[in-house]
Amino acid sequence: MVVTPYSNTTEGKKEQVEKMFNEIAHRYDFINQLLSFGIHKFWRRKTIRLLSTTLSTKNSILLDVATGTADFAIDSLLLNPEKIIGIDIANDMLAVGKNKLINKNLSEKIELIQANSEELPFADNFFDAATVGFGVRNFENLEKGLLEVSRTLKKGSSFAILEFSIPERFPMKQLYNMYLKYICPFLGRLISKNPVAYNYLFESVEKFPHGEKLNAILLKSGFSSAVAYPQTFGIVTIYIAKK
Question: Bigger pLDDT: 130 or 188?
Fold first, then answer.
């Protein structure tokens, strides 16, 4: 089942996701900070630390998929790469990210371009590592997107995924589902003025394969190994997949 943001349109998931993120771009960072209580920064940096144990190439070039407003790309500078290229389909999200880079004087180190994660405009075996933060749920075709990332990675390099998951144990599972289903949509609508984005958040997390299910899909999509690291009672999971 393909989960999409809007039900009253004939547009595909990619077009709907692009529209949704363009509509909430102006408040996206603030809402992320509010709804995650700031923990999203810790999750990103933990992902980068795990990725750093697999990154051995100097002068590396990194890919940040679904980069949004570029927070993951900026944090990935901790890996000391030569360059980071962030891609996203939503131009308004990229505009926010580009302003951040200008303000932080990082425009030469990080390049942001509009591109579809399922049709990456890069050569085979180009990148030394790749990251994606809360973006794989939004792929129109999950396996196609993962295959594209694998295609552009050098052999032996790693792909780090940070994504929402569902806790397995009582009462965290029930509390988390209630938070995602009722509180996040209410606050998201109130602040972003978008009536669908944070309903889509719950639905997309609920239906998305996580843990060993996503590991299995990664192994079918060009990666030789995949390990899942649940965080914060399983609210999110970090995946490190090696090509």
Answer: 130
